[in-house]
Amino acid sequence: MVWAWYMDDSCEDQRKPHRLQPEQPVTLEQLRALGVHSYTLDADNYETDPALAKIRKENNYTWMDIINIHKDTLPNYEEKLKIFYEEHLHLDDEIRYILEGSGYFDVRGKDERWIRISMQKGDLITLPAGIYHRFTLDENNYVKAMRLFVGKPVWTPYNRPADNYEARTKYLQSLEQNA
C-alpha cells in the first residue's frame, strides 16, 4: 500500500524520505481528491493476475512495457534520474506498477506543496493528465516497473511551467469541481 506525506524543503539527496517535521501524513482520500489513485496487487504473478487484467480492461490500458531503473540496467542512468526528477506534467495519465524495488512519486497538492508518495512492490498508481509531478528512486536505488498506456505510448514530459496545455486546464477544473 502506498504511503504519502508532505515533504520538507531540504536540498539533501532526493532519494531520502524528506518527511516534514512534525510529520504531516497524506491520506489515500486526499490523494484521490487530487485525482491520484492507487491499488495493491500481486506483483509476483503480474502476468496472470486477474486484478491487474480487470484494471487494464476497465481503463483501456492496452499497451505496456517494463523498465528496470538501476545503474547497471538503464543507459545514461544518472542523466535519466535527473530528467525523471524535473517537475513536469503529461497530456495523458501516467500509470506505473512496481514489480520489484521501490521509489517515490512526488505530486503537487492543491496548495502547491510537494506530497511524496512512497511506492513498493505490488503498488500501482495512476496520476491524472495535467498534474505536476516527478519521480525518483529511494535509497535502495532500484525499481522494476510496468508502464501502462491507453493506446500508443506518449513519453513527452512538459516541464513546468506548462499551464497553457489543455490537460492542465482540465486538471485544474476537475480540482475545482471536486472541492
From TrEMBL:
Protein EC: 1.13.11.53, 1.13.11.54
Required cofactor names: Fe(2+); Ni(2+)
Gene3D superfamilies assigned: Jelly Rolls
Cofactor-binding details, from the entry: Binds either 1 Fe or Ni cation per monomer. Iron-binding promotes an acireductone dioxygenase reaction producing 2-keto-4-methylthiobutyrate, while nickel-binding promotes an acireductone dioxygenase reaction producing 3-(methylsulfanyl)propanoate.
Binding site for Ni(2+): H88, H90, E94, H133
Tree of life domain: Eukaryota
Entry keyword set: Amino-acid biosynthesis, Cell membrane, Cytoplasm, Dioxygenase, Iron, Membrane, Metal-binding, Methionine biosynthesis, Nickel, Nucleus, Oxidoreductase
Residues given in the record as Fe(2+) binding sites: H88, H90, E94, H133
Pfam families in the record: ARD (PF03079)
GO MF annotations, alphabetized: acireductone dioxygenase (Ni2+-requiring) activity; acireductone dioxygenase [iron(II)-requiring] activity; iron ion binding; nickel cation binding
InterPro entries membership: ARD, ARD_euk, RmlC-like_jellyroll, RmlC_Cupin_sf
Reactions this protein catalyses: 1,2-dihydroxy-5-(methylsulfanyl)pent-1-en-3-one + O2 = 3-(methylsulfanyl)propanoate + CO + formate + 2 H(+); 1,2-dihydroxy-5-(methylsulfanyl)pent-1-en-3-one + O2 = 4-methylsulfanyl-2-oxobutanoate + formate + 2 H(+)
Record-level GO BP terms: L-methionine salvage from methylthioadenosine
Main location: cytoplasm
Listed GO CC annotations: cytoplasm; nucleus; plasma membrane
Topology versus the membrane: Peripheral membrane protein
Annotated HAMAP family: Salvage_MtnD_euk
Protein family according to the UniProt entry: Belongs to the acireductone dioxygenase (ARD) family.
Subunit structure: Monomer.
PANTHER family: ACIREDUCTONE DIOXYGENASE
Function text: Catalyzes 2 different reactions between oxygen and the acireductone 1,2-dihydroxy-3-keto-5-methylthiopentene (DHK-MTPene) depending upon the metal bound in the active site. Fe-containing acireductone dioxygenase (Fe-ARD) produces formate and 2-keto-4-methylthiobutyrate (KMTB), the alpha-ketoacid precursor of methionine in the methionine recycle pathway. Ni-containing acireductone dioxygenase (Ni-ARD) produces methylthiopropionate, carbon monoxide and formate, and does not lie on the methionine recycle pathway.
Protein name in UniProt: Acireductone dioxygenase
Lineage start: Eukaryota, Metazoa, Chordata, Craniata, Vertebrata
